[in-house]
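> forwarded from #structure-qc
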């Protein structure tokens, strides 16, 4: 029987999104494989987290691609992005809290690509008068990541219904990001 590496990563992501301190033994059990098999494919936790990082970046890039960010208003693009990223929200919540991924000089270039694309969406919204200009696109990007992570945790713990994920993230972010019309 051949090991489905993608399935092992998805099992690990699901477990680590719920329990970030899970051991490699727990990860192996959740994937339905032995610890030795897991270690043959991922030498240790760092290697596993690195593979999860690559998966998360690929999934977020796919969400960005499918969201059509340049179509219509920036607000509509943001709504489509949040809906597209929802299936990967738990993995992203885990990754953005993994400090080891953002320390030192070896930060994955994929994060910079993601940040640039999301920031460009917020910048476009600012230029068109949709979003506040006193909040930088970089800050709005970080706020989006934080809300995605927080809402993913809330869904996982049953405090928010899964079907409410897009609404909760969009409305809270846009409630603070929208440019108010002066009266």
């Amino acid at each position: 029987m051949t090991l489905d590496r993608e399935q092992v990563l998805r099992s690990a992501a699901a477990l680590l999104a719920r329990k970030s301190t899970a051991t490699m033994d727990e990860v192996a059990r959740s994937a339905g494989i032995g610890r030795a098999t897991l270690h043959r494919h991922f030498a240790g936790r760092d290697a596993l987290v690195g593979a999860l990082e690559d998966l998360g970046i690929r999934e977020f890039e796919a969400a960005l691609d499918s969201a059509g960010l340049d179509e219509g208003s920036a607000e509509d693009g943001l709504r489509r992005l949040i809906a597209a990223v929802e299936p990967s929200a738990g993995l992203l919540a885990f990754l953005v809290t993994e400090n080891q991924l953002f320390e030192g000089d070896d930060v994955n270039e994929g994060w910079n690509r993601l940040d640039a694309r999301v920031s460009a969406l917020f910048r476009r919204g600012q230029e068109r008068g949709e979003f506040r200009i006193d909040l930088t696109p970089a800050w709005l990007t970080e706020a989006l990541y934080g809300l995605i992570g927080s809402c993913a945790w809330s869904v996982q713990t049953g405090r928010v219904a899964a079907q409410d994920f897009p609404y909760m993230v969009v409305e809270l972010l846009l409630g603070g990001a929208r440019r108010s019309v002066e009266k």
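QC bot note: The chain has a mean pLDDT of 88. The two ends are 68 Å apart (CA to CA).
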